[in-house]
Amino acid sequence: MLENLSREVQELKRGILPLLPLPPQLKPIISRVSEETDPILTDAYFRGVRRLVQEVEDRKQNPKQPLRANLGKAKKIRTKSQKRNDKLQSQAFARANKALRKTNGQMRKGITQRDIAARAQRELRKLKKNVVKRVKR
What we know:
This protein is an all-alpha fold. 64% of the residues lie in helices and 0% in strands.
């Protein structure tokens, strides 16, 4: 199957080269350079076009399965404040777990995950109060 896919990529590349609006003298040079870029093109093809084709084929087998909507979306950028809050929240949960769990990791008698989460929220508020805010001057 990989051989067929690689062959498809090669055919795609050969089909694009004659269409380029370049002087005839440059086309042989570009074909030599394109041989060096084959791995890059193959990788892009496998990640892009073939993934979409596979999604459509999977959809035919299981019509209720939705197509992946995030094929063309960029990754969401996280702000400094989000990262800082996550770090503080991680510390808060570590403190809450340490206080409400036994040394072997089990929860103490009568304690639920809800209790641990509530305690972590209280710890988070305390941690945020202790964080020094930078003042612009």
